[in-house]
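This section describes the prediction task in plain terms. A model, or a person checking by hand, is given the sequence of a single protein chain and must write out its three-dimensional structure as a string of tokens. No templates, partner chains or ligands are provided. The sample shown here is typical of the held-out split.
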Amino acid sequence: MILLLVIGTAGYLILLVILGIGLSRLGKSGNSDRPYVSVLVAARNEEANVGACVEALLAQDYPRDRVEIIVIDDASTDKTASIVQQYHATDSRVRLIQAGPNPEGLGPKKNAIRWGIASSKGDIIVTTDADCTPPRSWLSVIVPYFDEGIGVVAGPSILTADNNWLTGWLRLENLGNIAIYAGSIGLDFPVGAQGANLAYRRELWDALGFGESGKTFSGDDDLFVQRVAQDGRWRVRYAFESSATVPHRHHVTGRSTVGQKRRHLSVVRWYRPAIVVLAALVTAYHALLALSLVIGLFVFPTFLTWLLCTGVKTLGDGLILEKVAVRLEVKLPWHWLPVAEILRPFALLFLTPMSLVGQVSWKGRARSAAPASDPGKPT
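The expected answer:
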């Protein structure tokens, strides 16, 4: 047990070093082209958020005649559609469309995005969420990353929510995901992206689309980026700067957090094989940490080894997270880090099996989480 824990921690630290190298390779771009941009916002029952999102998009400093804003109403039962129509009445750049039929069985959000793309005319497709408020410079920063050969530009989306232990933990998880996405792209081995801040060329979409992975209930961003990387015709870049960061407001509850994590974990089985292997190894290491702590309560040498390994891991994670926080000009909640490091192994042990069985849900819709030959097969 002690030897396995030491070896696992050493391997984990090596992964952190490699990730740090990827982060250090990320640079900026100076492309001066201003292609026509279509910003897509898939919205379902977002009356509390969609107005602020549209206002933020209308305030972009990108040339007014080179951008359109398309909100796709995904069968909302509240005032989402009427709110968007009010903005359309005063600014023709804003359009509302309805998500149409879904004969291919795509995930609901992917189906909405597909309908939005079909109604758009931009050379560059940009997606964000209805509960996001992109900064004024957002489009002007991410679009220049589309140098020749670049098909996708991903960017960071930072969680903003009330300050408590759960949101503190989720902020750390959020920064950790950004580190993984940005670092892997810096290594030319893209693992994923955040759909709240994602852009791609129309010609790339026309060539690839979502494919079979579009039938999963979640993971539209991760699986799409991995699909592009596997295709090999385009490269992926990351806009790793504060002016490209999109604030993402979540109403955080314990139940919603468990549901979100289950959705995300349920898609991992459809990742590229090498990524699945890495994810399995990291999960196994966290399971070993959890088991070592339990055994360590009765066996003192095991507890000391757990304490040392957890301390080293916490420092390594903290340095990576601090690197991301400094680059994005946000404050790292260091005081929540020790709590998160102790709880994360147990959370993974609890959530991973749950993500493989039963149903995962999103905004009143549910699909099976069990493996199927057809990803995301409807129940």
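For orientation: The mean pLDDT is 88.
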